[in-house]
Amino acid sequence: MQHVKVPQDRIGVLIGEGGETMREIEDRAEVRLDIDSESGSVAIDSVGDPVAGLVAPDIVRAIGRGFTPEVALSLLEHDLRRFELVDLASETRNKNDLQRQKGRLIGENGRTRELMEDLSGAEVVIKGTTLGVIGQPEEVEAVRRATGMILDGAPHGAVYSFLERKHNEIHGAPDLSTPTGNAEEPR
């Protein structure tokens, strides 16, 4: 049996309307969840496939860190798909620095976080003092490195260039060798 602590404001999401989300996690991960909605403590007991049961704590943690139940449950869809947390508080000097760095990671109107998702292919959530990532190992690593670059003070443009290169490595570059018809032919 494993225990996971979930923030109070995410207990309702974990349980779902009429217990729907909780039942889906139990069915798909082959576990039993015992949720203490007062303390936020969740006991996870594997009752079926032990491999699926090993993923259940990450599913519960991911929902607790702000991911939707659908995205958290995607951890069961592929063996290599994984969930990672970056502790932003340990990477910053104080509360003001934490707020500033979170602002840099989120970007204006959420643009930086969105670009991290679009270019890496991973799902990214920033909540409290953590940045959570769900994706394939190379996608998670790209977000982790981009996050490190931003926390180290790299300009956003450099981070976006890095993410574009990683996108091309992971997902394949667009074929730029075929003419588009816009360029003039040499004479």
Automatic annotation (TrEMBL):
<dbReference type="InterPro" id="IPR036612">
    <property type="entry name" value="KH_dom_type_1_sf"/>
</dbReference>
<feature type="domain" description="K Homology">
    <location>
        <begin position="1"/>
        <end position="81"/>
    </location>
</feature>
<dbReference type="InterPro" id="IPR055211">
    <property type="entry name" value="KH_PNO1_2nd"/>
</dbReference>
<dbReference type="GO" id="GO:0003723">
    <property type="term" value="F:RNA binding"/>
</dbReference>
<dbReference type="InterPro" id="IPR019964">
    <property type="entry name" value="KH_domain_protein_archaea"/>
</dbReference>
<keyword id="KW-0694">RNA-binding</keyword>
<protein>
    <submittedName>
        <fullName>RNA-processing protein</fullName>
    </submittedName>
</protein>
<dbReference type="InterPro" id="IPR004087">
    <property type="entry name" value="KH_dom"/>
</dbReference>
<dbReference type="InterPro" id="IPR004088">
    <property type="entry name" value="KH_dom_type_1"/>
</dbReference>
<dbReference type="Pfam" id="PF22891">
    <property type="entry name" value="KH_PNO1_2nd"/>
</dbReference>
<dbReference type="Pfam" id="PF00013">
    <property type="entry name" value="KH_1"/>
</dbReference>
<feature type="domain" description="K Homology">
    <location>
        <begin position="87"/>
        <end position="152"/>
    </location>
</feature>
